[in-house]
TrEMBL record:
SUPFAM superfamilies in UniProt: MFS general substrate transporter
Acidic residues bias: start-end ranges: 13-39
Membrane topology: Multi-pass membrane protein
Major facilitator superfamily (MFS) profile domain sequence ranges: 75-510
Protein name, UniProt field: MFS general substrate transporter
Regions crossing the membrane: 140-158, 164-189, 201-221, 233-255, 321-345, 357-374, 386-405, 417-439, 451-471, 477-503
Entry keywords, A to Z: Membrane, Transmembrane, Transmembrane helix, Transport
Domain of life: Eukaryota
GO molecular function, one term: transmembrane transporter activity
Gene3D superfamilies recorded: MFS general substrate transporter like domains
Organism placement in taxonomy: Eukaryota, Fungi, Dikarya, Ascomycota, Pezizomycotina
Pfam families: MFS_1
Disordered: annotated segments: 1-46
């Protein structure tokens, strides 16, 4: 491998583009050879991100900012659009319920609950497909997911019985399980640990936007299609489901598999995008190589093989289960309120049309709160303080709702509606921080994938409870459901503090035993 020192872009110095490209290509080739052969990793790292001065040896801060901005606008924004479409197709059944679905199909309260449960049952069973992001090119995997849920969601518009709708909801869970849970893992191919929460927040912020959009669209469809030849709930499923089929074709040619294959970046920008991730790739490769060596097995290229030792290591790590329990509790609220909110507001005394419109506003307010908490979390490189705050915000909203019945506080309906706002903002923001925290504290790529799969397998059991918390017999106050959700949000705060303590102790041990590796780079430390 070449030992030639890399060029540095100093301010006021001009480089010939051809010479710069040649140097960059040579360095990238050297680094890749080192990672593949298991040699020269230290040599590659010293040109990478080891310090602020070293970080920009091959690109300027201005170039990095430009690349990040383009990734945000072209990649993260598109992922947010896709996530919004997927969340729309899973949660619009709540709007369809009061738009005539329940009466036309003669559904009981229990049958409606089973329609929600069917989605999450298959969603949980197929969480393992998160690992397919590591094995199948992303543009193929994501495009097929979009196509599958778009077709299934559209077919809901022609169902004639409860049983057919139940089957379609189960199939919809499979299509979405292969997509959404793995998105943070996919974004980790393009963004560093301290950049991930905000980007995860950007695409998850599409969930409250989807809820708000679904409610607004349901209001329009219900208002203008009543008495028409097609039932409003059928139009709702079709109008919100079919666009995904069209987007799938575009996604195939647009979605990059890695920074090096992003067509919306220039040749130079692709190099910068790859170079800025080199240090994290080396850390992942070293961890997996170490695990593989202990098992006397080789390691393949990134995104092409799974490290079984790393999967086992993740599955026996207690920290993984602490995070998964947080996700479980938060998901009880996250999964239930969006699909029951139109009904809850309807039971406050509003008409179905007005209830559709009022359902939009709590999620709309959650959008900026989610982004602000994620941005501050990334900026401070800390997760737990913001997670505790957002979970307690949700706890406050649910506690007010739980105490609103005539036998306790006898709160008026307008105050109950106001309490929905902090509850919604709390669980949407907390979900973002939990997912980011889980990814941040896995050193290897396989560990991230396995950790995310475990997080979702355990955490997505929360909806099995959440979707059964609001039976009609508990209307209009739904005290039991609100109390359970308040308790779950409080549990998230307690678990976050516990995990912070565990990680802090382990960080102190790591600093004492091995504060620096052979290249002068700090040992992998957990984000608190």
């Amino acid at each position: 491998m070449s030992n030639k020192p890399p060029l540095r872009r100093e301010e006021g110095t001009e480089f010939e583009e051809e010479d710069q490209d040649k140097e960059d290509a040579e360095l990238l080739e050297d680094q890749e050879e080192g990672l593949e052969d298991g040699e020269g990793v230290g040599s590659a790292r010293c040109r990478g991100r080891g310090s602020v001065g070293e970080r920009f040896t091959l690109y300027s801060p201005e170039e990095e900012r430009k690349v990040l901005k383009r990734l945000d606008w072209r990649l993260v924004a598109f992922m947010a659009l896709l996530y919004m479409m997927s969340f729309l197709d899973r949660s619009n059944i709540g709007n369809a319920r009061i738009a005539g679905l329940e009466s036309d199909l003669q559904l009981t309260s229990s049958q409606y609950d089973w329609l929600l449960t069917a989605f999450y049952a298959t969603y949980i069973m197929f969480e393992w497909m998160v690992l397919l992001y590591r094995l199948i090119p992303a543009h193929i995997h994501i495009s097929l997911c979009i196509l599958s849920w778009g077709v299934i969601a559209s077919l809901q518009s022609v169902v004639t019985s409860y049983r057919i709708l139940l089957v379609l909801r189960a199939l919809l869970g499979i299509g979405e399980a292969a997509f959404g849970p793995g998105l943070p893992f996919y974004l980790s191919f393009f963004f560093r640990r301290d950049e991930l929460a905000y980007r995860t927040g950007l695409f998850i912020s599409a969930a409250p936007l989807a809820t708000s959009f679904a409610s607004s669209l349901a209001w329009l469809i219900t208002k203008f299609s009543e008495g028409g030849p097609i039932a409003p709930w059928r139009l709702l499923f079709l109008v919100e489901g079919f666009p995904s089929v069209l987007v799938a074709a575009f996604a195939w040619g647009y979605i990059p598999d890695s920074p090096e294959t992003a067509r919306f970046l220039t040749k130079r920008e692709r190099k910068v995008a790859a170079l800025r991730m080199q240090d994290e790739r080396e850390t992942e490769a070293e961890v997996e190589a170490e695990a593989a060596m202990s098992e006397k097995m080789g390691i393949g290229r990134r995104q092409s093989r799974l490290s079984l030792p790393e999967i086992r290591r993740t599955l026996v790590d207690p920290k993984s289960y602490l995070t998964a329990l947080m996700f479980f509790n938060c998901n009880v609220a996250f999964s239930s309120l969006p699909v029951f909110l139109p009904t809850i507001i309807n039971d406050m005394g509003h008409s179905p049309v007005t209830s559709q419109l009022l359902s939009a506003f709590p999620s709309l307010l959650a959008f900026p709160i989610l982004l602000i908490s994620a941005h501050l979390s990334d900026r401070s490189a800390s997760r737990s303080p913001y997670l505790v705050f957002t979970s307690l915000l949700g706890f406050l909203g649910y506690t007010i709702l739980a105490l609103s019945s005539p036998s306790v506080l006898a709160l008026p309906s307008w105050l109950r509606y106001v309490a929905i706002f902090p509850a919604t903002a709390g669980f949407f923001s907390s979900i973002t921080l939990i997912i980011s925290w889980n990814l941040n504290n896995q050193a290897s790529a396989t560990g991230k994938g396995a950790g995310l799969a475990l997080l979702n397998i355990v955490g997505q059991c929360g909806p099995l409870l959440g979707t059964r918390l609001y039976p009609k017999k508990d209307a209009p106050y739904y005290t039991t459901g609100m109390t359970v959700c308040a308790s779950c949000m409080a549990a998230v705060a307690i678990l976050a503090l516990g995990l912070r303590l565990v990680l802090r102790i382990q960080n102190e041990k790591r600093k004492k035993t091995s504060p620096y590796d052979g290249d002068g780079k700090a040992e992998f430390l957990y984000i608190l």
